[in-house]
Amino acid sequence: MTANPLPEGVIEALLGVVGRKGWVDDAGAMEPHLIEARGFWRGTCAAVVRPASTEETARVIEICAAAGVPVTPQGGNTGLQGGAVPDGGIVLSMGRMNRIRAVDPLNHTMTVEAGCVLAAIQDAAAEAGCLFPLSLAAEGSCQIGGNLSTNAGGVQVLRYGNARDLVLGLEVVLPDGRVWERLRGLRKDNTGYDLKHLFIGAEGTLGVITAAVLKLYPKQPGRESAMAAVGDADQALGLFSRMCDACGDALTAFELIPRLGMEFAVKHMTGVVDPFADAHPYYTLIELTGPEGGTGLKEALETILAQALDDGIADDAVIAASEAQRDELWRVREVLSDCQKFEGGSIKHDVSVPVSRVGEFVRRAGKAVEAALPGVRILAFGHVGDGNIHYNLSQPVGADTDAFVARWDEFNHMVHDLVAEMDGSFSAEHGIGTLKRDELVRYKSSVEVGLMRTLKRTLDPKNIMNPGKVL
Ligand SMILES: Cc1cc2nc3c(=O)[nH]c(=O)nc-3n(C[C@H](O)[C@H](O)[C@H](O)COP(=O)(O)OP(=O)(O)OC[C@H]3O[C@@H](n4cnc5c(N)ncnc54)[C@H](O)[C@@H]3O)c2cc1C
Hints:
Alpha-Beta Plaits, alpha+beta, Uridine Diphospho-n-acetylenolpyruvylglucosamine Reductase, domain 2, 471 residues, 5-stranded antiparallel β-sheet, Uridine Diphospho-n-acetylenolpyruvylglucosamine Reductase, domain 3, binds flavin-adenine dinucleotide
């Protein structure tokens, strides 16, 4: 399918702004910008436009607004909900805006452009003797503009919060081409509506994030990781509670991995080792971090885990004795999304419930999906310390893949209805995109959806910014 051509004069106008360096219309070169990595969606666009500055971005948007051309902002295109897949118009690819504009170690802030790759930001923070804690498996290719636009979570939310919590200031090109500049590194600024939060998590529907002031933290060179085997999600929560009480802020990650995940990971992915001799129903991956030397972290881990083993809360435990062993433990967790594809069709959920109800959720959801499809294989893993479970289902062994995946909506509603009943969220960290647009209307109140539509119409009356996404 080819995209509708751009209105007369628009190509020349856009080329006049970004030049040949910022223009891609060759079919082969556009291809990576049209597809979602797992092949779930494929879009169309007339060209990929790559601005090199905020000024260029503003002029591109101004031209598109005047001509009614849809704009799909794109970062690393690693999003999982189809939000960066274009539906006509242009893709606005932010990768050339990749400058770190300033680092202020004393203020613990860093001003970056939207196209900076997350890993490069982490490295620059480290070079300045600081920590930028946002961390997720796609960090080598996702960009901070995409992270903020999806309010990304990742593995350290427990201690540092979501992407939203890591921003002090923003620069945004509005849907009419005006630039809203609020690149302040202030911890205190009580001056009315906090507008930055409108654009964080908006998935490119309200404007283009071009730069941000990010919060940095003191480096945490002390790091201890462990994996503890537990009988069920309730035991995992019991252990989590003990870790929180004993370690407070030092508890940086607390992840849940089911046996099925361990089996899939060992079977299909290189470099994955089951650290235990016996099979266990669940595993928790625990990380403590602290300042220089990490004094006391290892002792704390050893004490709590020994006590948990004595009390029957944990069945077995290993503490990483080296960085290599730590990487091995984390490798199991990191490959969980990827390894599922080798087991046939899968139906995915990214849900959250109050942390205290994770065990109840896992039990009740398990009963419901198993009753609906005996033999369905449940891969419930994720950020249990945030109450965020990636509740993924793999087809029964030998089942027909198409027939299984055709039941996507049925299982989604089953799981999401339960989550709604438990005061949870049907999208904990991956956003809405196109995948969960209908769920948004189903699960949010009419007042909330109405407010969102009012905001969208007010800021983007011509509906050029990522139309068809979120709402
Ligand atoms: C292996 C893997 C692991 C992942 N793990 C996690 C995880 O743990 N936690 C998590 O939250 N997510 C995770 N994700 C999802 C994804 O990486 C994040 O959502 C990431 O933040 C998206 O960044 P991106 O640059 O790739 O954005 P894209 O995919 O390019 O875009 C995502 C959305 O943001 C919009 N957008 C992009 N840049 C801008 C901008 N500058 N201004 C306005 N709108 C913009 C797009 O239009 C789109 O709607 C994972 C993905 C993969 C592939």
